[in-house]
From TrEMBL:
Lineage of the species this protein comes from: Archaea, Methanobacteriati, Methanobacteriota, Stenosarchaea group, Halobacteria
Database matches in PANTHER family: PROTOPORPHYRINOGEN IX DEHYDROGENASE [MENAQUINONE], PROTOPORPHYRINOGEN IX DEHYDROGENASE [QUINONE]
Domain Flavodoxin-like: 4-168
One Gene Ontology MF term: FMN binding
Organism: Haloarcula terrestris
GO annotation terms (biological process): heme biosynthetic process
Protein name, UniProt field: Flavodoxin domain-containing protein
Alphabetized Pfam families for the sequence: Flavodoxin_5
């Protein structure tokens, strides 16, 4: 099977959680997966040894992580030679009225980097009220006022991620890799049975 890297940048951990879920879904199809926080990659890191790459980034104050943007820009040649996917995590993606805004962030990222991933996913993020200080809690309440309901009190963490959409994106990305590389999914635990 294929070796697939899920490389991501995260601000408060939701993108990491989504990357792990993508890795699990792709692994269930028989592929070898690795997840890597962009901040933890060694200086000598390369894409050699991977058959495909999924890159994830979150939006904070209208921008993706600079380290993700720089990585994609600096590895343009390697990325263009293999199957790739990109996923974005933002509160705008969880809000029906702001999905166009979220799509604009993706377009800006792709324009800035010159990258053309084969698959793109956009997922709602999370609010980590339990981790915010007083001022950030007030600011995030204002930013997310359209998303918060009376049942969602801004004292704990609230996820807006559609996990079924994450699973569908991961399955689609894996199917594309399989098609492009001419491999079949191996969903059996022991093919000798």
């Amino acid at each position: 099977m294929s070796s697939i890297l899920i490389l991501y940048g995260t601000g408060e951990g939701q993108t990491a959680k989504i990357a792990d879920r993508i890795a699990t879904t792709i692994s269930e199809r028989g592929h070898e997966t690795s997840t890597l926080d962009i901040r933890e990659r060694p200086n000598s890191f390369t894409l050699d040894g991977y058959d495909a790459v999924v890159v994830g980034a979150s939006i904070h104050v209208g921008k993706h992580q600079g380290a993700v943007r720089d990585f994609v820009t600096n590895n343009q040649t390697a990325l263009s030679g293999m199957p790739t996917a990109f996923f974005q995590v933002s509160l705008s993606s969880a809000n029906e009225e702001k999905r166009e805004e979220a799509a604009g962030y993706v377009e800006s990222f792709l324009t800035e980097t010159g990258w053309h991933p084969d698959r793109i996913g956009q997922f709602g993020g999370a609010l980590r009220f339990s981790e915010y200080g007083f001022l950030k809690r007030l600011m995030m309440k204002q930013i997310a006022k359209d998303l918060l309901t009376e049942r969602q009190t801004p004292s704990g963490d609230i996820e807006f991620t559609d996990w079924e959409a994450v699973d569908a994106f991961a399955a689609d990305a894996a199917a594309f890799v399989e098609s492009r590389l001419g491999v079949s999914p191996d969903t059996t635990e022991d093919s000798a049975e």
